[in-house]
């Protein structure tokens, strides 16, 4: 499996009055991490649009399990991978580490979306390109 790891320092604006990260901020970090995963794998947003005719990769489901809080100034590591790929949807997992300890598990279901060829004003799910499947799954 293709995995991307990135270091993130918790900023003042990420925290609530109790000085712990306000949970929606993690979902923004997960969204960034998914975009970065595609970029690092060689599939930039521009490639998705130009080469594959996609409009985007919207999220259709998300959830997280929180184990250890983080506060202003902490460094966390976000490890992102695609866990499974179906025809057009795929599952993303984010493991967030604080030091060596697993702090959060984040989960997303996303769909590749392009213009409907029968009605360009509408969007339609698009099949996952074979080269992308190979890159993300190693098979």
UniProtKB/TrEMBL annotation:
It comes from the Bacteria. Keywords: Hydrolase. The keyword Secreted does not apply. Transmembrane segments: none annotated. InterPro entries: 4-hydroxybenzoyl-CoA_TE, HotDog_dom_sf. It holds the Pfam family 4HBT_2. The keyword Hydrolase applies. This is Acyl-CoA thioesterase. The lineage of its organism: Bacteria, Pseudomonadati, Pseudomonadota, Alphaproteobacteria, Hyphomicrobiales.
């Amino acid at each position: 499996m293709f995995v991307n790891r990135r270091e993130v320092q918790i900023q003042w604006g990420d925290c609530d009055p109790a000085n712990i990260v306000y949970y929606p901020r993690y979902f923004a970090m997960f969204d960034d991490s998914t975009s970065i995963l595609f970029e690092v794998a060689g599939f930039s947003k521009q490639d998705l649009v130009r080469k594959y005719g996609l409009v985007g990769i919207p999220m259709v489901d998300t959830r997280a399990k929180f184990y250890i809080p983080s506060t202003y100034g902490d460094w966390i590591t976000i490890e992102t991978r695609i866990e499974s790929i179906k025809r057009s949807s795929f599952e993303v997992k984010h493991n967030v580490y604080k030091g060596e300890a697993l702090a959060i598990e984040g989960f997303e279901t996303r769909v590749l979306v392009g213009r409907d060829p029968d009605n360009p004003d509408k969007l339609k799910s698009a099949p996952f390109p074979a080269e992308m499947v190979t890159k993300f799954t190693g098979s």
